[in-house]
Design brief:
Length: 228
């Protein structure tokens, strides 16, 4: 998979992309992530990429020319262009799963008061938000999106069960996990987990997953049919 990121601050990404799972995925060739400085695409002699909004108002808006030129330079057949912005559709595990199936995506990191509306109307395929709050730019959301996508690429995690049974893979919150010791400062692991009865363990985990989802995401359960 190829992921191109257009940003005003490419250096921000280094700490995240040069460690752990993303670093290993890049090294093994599962994903190719490249960062592009938006200022390299501006035709302004001062490398300016923003301007005041028509009609007045606070802040600055990213101009269309640099972003259009950057995307046109990078785009390949079948590529999807994504704008990270608080106005976008809220990111979910299902949407991330769909994006992980594409061979090439381009991420545009918004900044300041946003982007020229013509970018939304005529250039992007998806607009994604990581939550109902405002950040200083699209760089952190882009990191979140890349991390969530890369771990779904077959082979990246090694053990495919890690993806199949984790939180939100089926809409439910993951069941509680325990490890050794069995008794830690008088806090004990549920006996069922040490019983060796895998059928009962599986049933227990399903019930616990339902309870946690019921507590934290009741609106999801209201949409489900046939839940015991």
């Amino acid at each position: 998979m190829r992921i191109d990121i257009i940003t005003l601050f490419p250096e921000i990404f280094k700490g995240v992309f040069e460690e752990s799972i993303i670093k290993n995925a890049c090294k093994k060739g599962y994903v190719d992530i490249k960062l592009y400085n938006l200022r390299d695409y501006t035709n302004d002699k001062h490398r300016k990429v923003d301007d005041r909004p028509f009609g007045g108002g606070a802040g600055m808006v990213l101009k269309p020319q640099p972003i259009f030129d950057a995307v046109n330079d990078l785009k390949s057949d079948g590529c999807k262009v994504i704008l990270l912005s608080p106005q976008g559709k809220k990111m979910t595990q299902n949407s991330v799963s769909e994006l992980s199936k594409y061979k090439h995506i381009i991420l545009i990191c918004g900044r300041y008061e946003g982007v020229d509306e013509r970018i939304r109307k005529y250039l992007i395929d998806f607009e994604i938000s990581v939550g109902d709050y405002v950040l200083t730019g699209g760089e952190i959301p882009a990191m979140v999106l890349v991390d969530s996508i890369v771990r779904l690429i077959p082979g990246v995690l090694g053990n495919e069960e890690s993806v199949e049974h984790e939180t939100f893979s089926n809409g439910y919150i993951e069941y509680p996990q325990y490890t050794r010791p069995v008794d830690f400062r008088d806090m004990k692991v549920p006996k069922i987990l040490t019983s060796g009865n895998h059928k009962k363990i599986d049933d227990w985990r399903k019930k616990q997953s339902f309870k946690k989802t019921q507590k934290n995401r009741p609106e999801f359960l209201n949409e489900k049919e046939g839940v015991d």
